[in-house]
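Bench notes, afternoon.
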Amino acid sequence: EAKLKEVLAALGYNEWMTFSFMSPKAYDRLNLEEDSPLRKNVELLDPLGEEYSVMRTTLLADSLEVLSKNMNRKNPEAFGYEFGNTFSLDQDQDHLPTEHKRLAIGFYGDQDFYFLKHTIQRLFDRAGIGEITLKRASQGYLHPGRSAEIFVDGQSYGFFGEVHPRVLGNFKMKKRAYV
């Protein structure tokens, strides 16, 4: 993780931290399909309120919220990342929800899809995984013609691309953004 943080810092990204709790309404804001596995979340028994009633299954909603706040505060650009945990209903050996360490990267400003692609390639190179394969992706939160899925030896490692215009609107963002 420390090596990857060095790469991200060298490329101009800042680290952000967000809560592990979120609102189930975030899934609609992300334009996720009703049957998306990301909608299968751990519900809290005694939440602080609806905004913090489930454990997050993705870092994307928080990442877009951070970018949205920066954009709406008239910052001309923002580049950030978070190493954070997501939670799934799959149970561990103690019959508790499983935690997964994830990385989310996001930005808006003068850079584009190819800068994000370059960032991802640099991260995989630094991690000692040089050979990645990219395939066109279809995710509700990403622009259909400007997104890709990352594979290493046939295993998916995630998605990246330009945020779908509908999702930008849901987060009250007026400029293109990339995650």
